[in-house]
Amino acid sequence: MANSGQKVVLITGCSSGIGLRIAVTLATDEKKRYHVIATMRDLKKKDKLLEAAGDVYGKTLMLLPLDVCSDESVRQCINSVKDRHIDILINNAGVGLLGPVESISIEEMKRVFDTNFFGVVRMIKEVMPDMKKRRSGHIVVMSSVMGLQGVVFNDVYTASKFAMEGFCESMAVQLLKFNIRLSMIEPGPVHTEFETKMMEEVAKMEYPGVDADTIRYFKDVYLPSSIDIFEAMGQTPEDIAKCTKKVIE
Ligand code: NDP
């Protein structure tokens, strides 16, 4: 349980990558300012987080299951937090989708929107009433540079982040009246499983129904140059976690 001086921080998508690193960075804060509720949709994946967090588990770090695509899971998770009191919500969970749009089904596109856009909306709707009552709170959203600029072969991912940016910009104005801050973080390329998994998978895939020129451009030009960009400019999850800590301080 949080001490009176500690801020309760709930983070989504802590099984890997940026979310895991934010959870560890805040839970190991040298001044113990944060009581971190790290959530993940499958608690069987908790070992990597617990290993990285060391002995703070059970002290400044606790775990809860949460699937941001499920209304019921979101409700249950927030209800299980003492007095539903969350000072800082960090919406980090997200999925990518890369490839020629002709090769992507509407169902896959909906999954991306359900996670990256409606996942954030569900969380904000659930925590907002209690933050409004207390007239305090901070909501952080992990967007992307792709929430600001369209990027070829990332059409649907980009659209989901644009949608979230629009939603959050509008919400930020309403929330300010209640002394609730809403911040967006827009990282460029970050070396995580997210990016590696995606690039490896798409490079192996066949693209039936897509014209040969597009496939050639995608596989021979786009993918190698993206990998180069990740290698040359890629930040680490630690960089983004430090930035997130600065944003909430
Ligand atoms: P990872 O794939 O490493 O992590 C994504 C996390 O989101 C995982 O914990 C995953 O859980 C979780 N997640 C996915 N779907 C759900 C769901 N329905 N409910 C709860 N959790 C879910 O990727 P990153 O750490 O890179 O991505 C984190 C965020 O950063 C995303 O929002 C992404 O868009 C954003 N971002 C990433 C960049 C990058 O280059 N990597 C650049 C800019 C922004 P599970 O293990 O169960 O799949």
Annotation keywords:
249 residues; alpha/beta; Rossmann fold; 6-stranded parallel β-sheet; 9 helices; globular; binds NADPH dihydro-nicotinamide-adenine-dinucleotide phosphate
Task: Describe the protein.
The chain is α/β, with parallel strands linked by helices and 249 residues long. It is built from nine helices and six strands, in the order βαβαβαβααβαβααα. It has one domain: Rossmann fold (3-Layer(aba) Sandwich). The protein has a six-stranded parallel β-sheet with strand order 3-2-1-4-5-6, sandwiched between helices. Strand 5 (137-142), helix 6 (155-176) and strand 6 form a beta-alpha-beta unit. Helix 4 (106-116) packs parallel to helix 6. 36% of the residues are buried. The mean pLDDT is 95. The structure holds NADPH dihydro-nicotinamide-adenine-dinucleotide phosphate (NDP). Residues 12-13, 15-19, 40-42, 45, 66-69, 92-95, 115, 119, 142, 144, 187, 189-190, 192-195 line the site of NADPH dihydro-nicotinamide-adenine-dinucleotide phosphate.
User: What is the highest CATH level, the class?
Assistant: Alpha Beta
Given as residue ranges, the uncertain stretches (5+ residues, pLDDT < 50) are none
Strand content: 5-15%
Number of helical elements: 9
The Rg value, from CA coordinates, equals 19 Å
- SSE sequence, one letter per element: EHEHEHEHHEHEHHH
Chain-averaged pLDDT: 95
Distance between the termini: 21 Å
| CATH topology value | Rossmann fold
Rough shape?
Answer: globular
* Major sheet attributes: 6 strands, parallel
> What share of residues is helical?
40-55%
CATH homology superfamily name: NAD(P)-binding Rossmann-like Domain
- Number-wise, the strands total 6
Q: Within the largest sheet, what's the order of strands?
A: 3-2-1-4-5-6
Q: Structural class of the helices, strands and pairings?
A: alpha/beta
Oligomeric category: single chain
Keywords: Lipid metabolism, Membrane, NADP, Oxidoreductase, Sensory transduction
Function: Retinol dehydrogenase with a clear preference for NADP. Converts all-trans-retinal to all-trans-retinol. May play a role in the regeneration of visual pigment at high light intensity.
Domain Ketoreductase: 7-193
Catalytic activity: all-trans-retinol + NADP(+) = all-trans-retinal + NADPH + H(+)
